[in-house]
Here is the input.
Amino acid sequence: MKEIARIEEITGCKNLVLLEVGMSTTKFKGIYKGKPILVRRFHERDYYGNRFKRENFILKFLENISNSNLVFPKIIKEFPDHDIHVLSWIEGESLDNVAISETKKYEIVKSIWETITKLPEPNDFKFNHFRDIRMLTEDESKIMNISKTIFLNLKDKIWKSFNKSIIKKHSRSIIHGDLHDGNIIVINLEKNQFGVIDWEFASIGSKYFDLAYYCTYSNRDYPSEYLDEMRPWEDIIKLLITHWFLSNFDNYPSEAKQWLDTLRKEIMVST
Here is the structure.
């Protein structure tokens, strides 16, 4: 495969094997200096800007964070001219492949989310979640017919909600931006040790966003107590609907549509 040979030549890594061609990166597993590594080649830059630069910044920041339960990838080598970096390999199973209950998975993700929200805010990290959302929603082609009316009505209120959450220091934190089961590596379930990978959408914004994103992305019917737990925060529902708007929910299971439709009705009643 020509691409593998080219990336091996650029990085000096050996025995690369294609793992995944994703929306934003192509991933390879290989060997560097006798140890397993992950190579990520970033695709074209878009409204999120330079994802390579964004992830490199946050991973270098996380290298200085000591946490016995969470492991983050470490940058071994980087090649900015090619938007490629070589990362340490985190050994384990992704959470979506682990045979445990959906409730247990949620509890794991919530624990990880709580840890991330308590991390210190990095200095000079210029990626602002509100700006990301606004750039996306200004593209009218992103508005699905099913959600166009509600978003034309709520757009200004949503801007204000995001803006307030960013201005208020106590409610903002690092956001992973793509927190789902596939980006969580179970290192040791009994010891509650996990890895969190794929930080190219990281930003600073409302600390509730990652949990909202996870519940929206996961397409699950969570027990009512978890939904009740989220309702006290006014902007959490708006964040959920925002993610709904940014995603093509025509491809999601019907129960996710029903769940989000219930949230939509709640917003329409309360606004």
User: Anything to note?
Assistant: The chain has two domains: 2-88, 93-270. The chain has a mean pLDDT of 74.
